[in-house]
């Protein structure tokens, strides 16, 4: 599996990515619902220095990297944590993401990414009450459609 950022092609529009997409970073898996996200000042600053960029897989099995993050506007803090962050000079921003395409990834490589996440963040994943069942169903899927059904069923994505 070649995920080197030097193989990335030109910028992609959001219309070329089938959302929701799976976001792999540091042993964790999250969901990207669209090209607009949220991030705080420190998170955006730190993510620019990560030597290993996250891998993003859409529902068609296409893989991507985040090419750039652009702050669109500061978000007004509504929750107590956001208010504290705002007062500590760490406000939340609406962020527009621009993606770069990587070579198409096989379903087996996506399963390997999950297995590496399970090893890297074992304590986190084992807190899941039905982790063994989730892992078994994940290994048994034979299409990207089934993969996303399993991820929704076990609330890994919404």
Summarize the structure.
The chain is built from 6 helices and 7 strands. The protein is of the alpha+beta class and 158 residues long.
Task: Describe the 3D structure.
The chain is α+β, with helices and mostly antiparallel strands. It has one domain (5-153). It contains six helices and seven strands. Strands 1, 2, 3, 4, 5, 6 and 7 form a seven-stranded antiparallel β-sheet that branches. The protein is globular and about 45 Å long.
Total number of strands: 7
**How confident is the prediction overall: mean pLDDT?**
81
How much of the sequence lies in strands comes to 25-35%
Number of structural units classed as domains: 1
Which terms summarize this structure?
alpha+beta, seven-stranded antiparallel sheet, 27% strand, globular, disordered N terminus
Topology, pairings included?
Elements: E1 11-12, E2 21-25, E3 28-32, E4 36-40, H1 41-47, E5 55-57, E6 63-74, H2 80-87, E7 92-102, H3 107-120, H4 122-126, H5 131-140, H6 144-153
Antiparallel strand pairs: 1-7, 2-3, 2-5, 4-7, 5-6, 6-7
